[in-house]
Design goal:
Helix content: 25-40%
Strand content: 15-25%
Distance between the termini: 12 Å
Structural class: alpha/beta
Radius of gyration: 17 Å
Largest sheet: 7 strands, mixed
Bound molecules: inosine 5'-triphosphate
Shape: globular
Number of strands: 7
Order of helices and strands: EHEHEEHEEEHH
Length: about 190
């Protein structure tokens, strides 16, 4: 069975296909003819994930899933959260976002934070939500060159190294997105 994943990111597609297995064929947005930007204007991660999935379902009529991720920092009241990609600027400026986060965390003793992924699935017209969370802390300076986004500033619980110092496999085994995708895969494979 074909199922659309709301992304064109080849890395994300491959990772999800591997986790889900061969019972489902994961198809990108481009492959099902959705080339326009999908609006992400909701105030929550769940809202954005659902809005993306509903958009694709209404455009294609195909079963589909979509995710949205945010970094939620305890000392900042859960910020940047749903605004993680647009924290410092309107665009996806990772460098500016990391700089702003370090600035706002200056002098803060509580470094607790979490990455959270909301995953919305529409299967045969029914809606489902899955969540993946990884707790950790915000480092006082960047460590490592791997990963992307806020990875150099985030050390997951039980680890002294940042996500950016881990291999993709190590990160995937404990990450927010890895956890959400495994929940989705388990659900699909038990149908
Ligand atoms: P798509 O919606 O096109 O997939 P996006 O950049 O909005 O792209 P996400 O919702 O996954 O992607 O992530 C929002 C922001 O959160 C992203 O710009 C990163 O800065 C950050 N982020 C997400 N996942 C991350 C991860 O695994 N490690 C570090 N930062 C991450």
């Amino acid at each position: 069975m074909k199922i659309v994943f709301a992304t064109n990111n080849a890395h994300k597609l491959r990772e999800v296909q591997q986790t889900v297995g061969d019972k489902f064929e994961i198809v990108s947005l481009r492959e099902c003819g959705v080339v326009e930007d999908i609006p992400e204007n909701e105030p929550t991660l769940e809202g954005n994930a659902l809005a993306k999935a509903r958009y694709i379902y209404s455009r294609t009529g195909l079963s589909c899933f979509a995710d949205d991720t945010g970094l939620e920092v305890d000392a900042l009241g859960g910020e940047p959260g749903v605004r993680s990609a647009r924290y410092a600027t309107d665009g996806h400026d990772d460098e500016a976002n990391k700089r702003l986060l370090l600035e706002r965390m200056e002098g803060k003793e509580n470094r607790g934070a979490q990455f959270r992924t909301a995953m919305a699935l529409i299967l045969d017209g029914e809606e489902y939500l899955f969540e993946g969370v990884v707790r950790g802390k915000i480092l006082t300076k960047e460590c490592g060159n791997g990963g992307f986004g806020y990875d150099p500033l985030f050390a997951p619980e039980g680890h002294s190294e940042s996500f950016a110092e881990m291999s993709a496999e190590e990160k995937n085994a404990i990450s927010h997105r890895g956890r959400a995708v495994r929940k989705l895969a388990e659900f699909l494979n038990n149908r």
